[in-house]
Amino acid sequence: MIIKGIIPIWLMLIFCIIASLFVWKTNHSKNNLIRKEIIILLVFVMNLRIMVEDTNSQKATNNLDVLFVIDSTISMIAEDYQGNSTRLQGIKETTKYIVEKLGGARFSVMTFNNRVNLLTPYTRDLNITKEALETINVANMIYAKGSTLNIVLEDMKKQLESSDKTDDRVSILFFISDGEITNEDKLKSFSVIQEYVQNGAVLGFGTEQGGKMKIKDYDDKYTYLEDYTSAGYPIPKAISRIDENNLKSVASDIGIDYIYMNDKSDIDDKIKEIEKLKVTKFENGTDNSYTDIYYIFAIPLIGMLIYEFINYKRKL
Fold first, then answer.
1. I need a surface site. Which of 87, 123, 163, 265 has the fewest CB within 10 A?
2. In Å, what is the CA distance from 17 to each residue of 11, 13, 60, 107, 297?
3. Mean pLDDT, residues 198-207 taken together
4. Residue 32: is it exposed, middle or buried by C-beta count within 10 angstroms (0-12/13-18/19+)?
5. What global pTM score does this model have?
6. Per-residue pLDDT tens for 48-104?
7. Neighbours of 293 (CB within 10 A)
């Protein structure tokens, strides 16, 4: 059983306590008091949105293990995706689109900036995967130390190996970045993971013209990042530009395609190619499949509200 509150539980609890105090203050009849307290309790329980595991449902699964490796350095908020949207907005839109198209696969999400973060291990739960993708944000400017693609290589290898150990799995990799390296690192060869990847793509976000990056300053206000490496005055805004040479090098090393992304539909041909590799089977919903049961509490709630309405009309 899991709980996914519709309204934040703490907020609904405060509302119900206030409502309950009002009921106690304005009702002198014991029967009236009990009925209205039950109504308040049912509202609170419904809001919890209780979900129980459904082990009887049939669902389609397949043999694909899809790993998203996502750049979450500061440059991902550069505003040059489809005009002035951030690259990160484009990444979230594209990855969630892929999840929908390849439903039934197992998904894992990994990000990298100053460090590598494994947000989810391989799971078939689409909600968990989408939530993980939605929560991705860039590194805090205070801790940013320049970006490099090399930092994620070893962790990628470990995660891909965990898929490779499972029989009959097809490992798909989506490496997502603008390719920028802003420290002194030289790009390493990614060929060490080639044997673990059967298909996928390196997805490039950004433009040659580049984009400015809006961050929170010390006063908690949004302002564009400035380029303090420039000798000019006033200090110009920092510009991040895509480095397709690095991205194409990574793709070549791994043996997968490089795709420049300007819209989520740019991935459609690759998805069709990947779908040819999947083997679908149907099994009981034993892997994080849940069913809402809040409607069970709605039935007595509606009945009691109808009774209260009729009772109120009679008193008029």
1. 265
2. 10, 6, 44, 41, 19
3. 97
4. middle
5. 0.71
6. 888 776 665 556 788 999 999 999 999 999 999 998 899 999 999 999 999 999 988
7. 13
State the number of CA atoms in the 13 A half-sphere of 48 facing the CB.
Answer: 17
Amino acid at 316: L
- In one letter, which amino acid is 254? I
Residue whose structure tokens are 């100053």: 114
The residues, any chain, with a CB within 8 Å of residue 261's CB and separated by 6 or more, are 90, 94, 203, 204, 205, 267
As a whole number of angstroms, the distance between CA 123 and CA 251 comes to 25
172 - beta bridge partners?
A: 66, 199
Cross-sheet strand order for the sheet of 2-3? 2-3, 50-53, 290-292
